[in-house]
Amino acid sequence: MSALTAAIDAAKAQGRAALIGYLPSGFPNAATSHRALRAIIEAGVDIVEIGPPYTDPVLDGPVIQQATAAALASGVTMADTYAAVSVVRDAGAVPVVMSYYNLMLQRGLDTFARELVDAGAAGVIAPDVTPDAAPEWVEAADAAGLDHVYLVAPSTTAERLALTAQASSGFVYAASLMGVTGERASVGEAAERLVADVRAAGAERVCVGLGVSTGEHAAQVARYADGVIVGTALVKCLFDEDEDAAIAAITEKARELRRGVEGHVEAHA
């Protein structure tokens, strides 16, 4: 059992879904980024996805694109991602990296895997590659002891669901809807059907992301998924130019989401 699967299973043993948060490395700066990572972990995030800033994202919506563009402009590099991984590990959560494949190729797959393990990462989510298209990455990740997580969407065929379920380790990332990351008014019914289909295809653990932004959303998804993934709603908090206010906001958002995965959602007037 990997650190990633252990965290998901530990949450399940507590009668809840795991809470998975995403933050890009180095935004708005290294010090604030590290402070934010520690804050969301203290507030109840179990697993943290760290995104290396990338010039040509295909999954990221406007909020995350703006954050990563600012990080790139400030000179953020892969070294900052590795530093963020170590911060998450030392704070007591499980770090995974969500990386576009070109970044991995540029680094060299074996080198990338080794450096991540050295920093403390448990796995890699590759949103723009499929396992059959990159068997060399599966080999490098397995050799390093990293989980390799792949995405499925409501449009994924039954054949591809089976392939992805078999090839993924850690969990399968189920995109709740078609499109890019971002806040939505609702998660939608397709996510629950997709989770059921992926499990029927053989996946042991399925986590849902895209569109989850409130405690109510988190509670809804937690009823059928093993993990609830939130990115944009957290990243948004870090645009506040007052650092203390930004940390307070991201802490409260993480607490709200944690209450959601535990099934406690406040009534709103």
Topology readout:
Elements: H1 3-13, E1 18-24, H2 30-42, E2 47-51, H3 62-73, H4 78-91, E3 94-98, H5 101-107, H6 109-119, E4 123-125, H7 135-144, E5 147-149, E6 151-152, H8 158-167, E7 172-175, H9 190-200, E8 206-209, H10 215-222, E9 227-230, H11 232-235, H12 243-261
Helix pairs in contact: 2-4, 2-12, 5-6, 6-7, 10-12
In a few lines, what is going on in this structure?
By secondary structure, this protein is an alpha/beta fold. Helix content is 48%, strand content 14%. The chain has a nine-stranded parallel sheet with strand order 5-4-3-2-1-9-8-7-6.
Largest sheet: 9 strands, parallel
* Spatial separation of the terminal alpha carbons: 44 Å
| Overall spatial form | globular
CATH class: Alpha Beta
Report the strand count.
Answer: 9
What is the average of the pLDDT values? 91
Q: Which regions contain 5 or more consecutive residues with pLDDT less than 50?
A: 178-185
At the fourth CATH level, what is the homologous superfamily?
Aldolase class I
* Number of individual domains: 1
Oligomer: single chain
Taking strands numbered 1, 2, ... along the chain, how are they ordered across the largest sheet? 5-4-3-2-1-9-8-7-6
CATH architecture: Alpha-Beta Barrel
Q: Which strand-content bin applies to the residues?
A: 5-15%
Order of helices and strands: HEHEHHEHHEHEEHEHEHEHH
Secondary structure class reads alpha/beta
Instruction: Classify the fold: give the CATH topology.
Output: TIM Barrel
CA-atom Rg in angstroms:
17 Å
Q: What's the helical proportion of residues?
A: 40-55%
What is the tally of helical segments?
A: 12
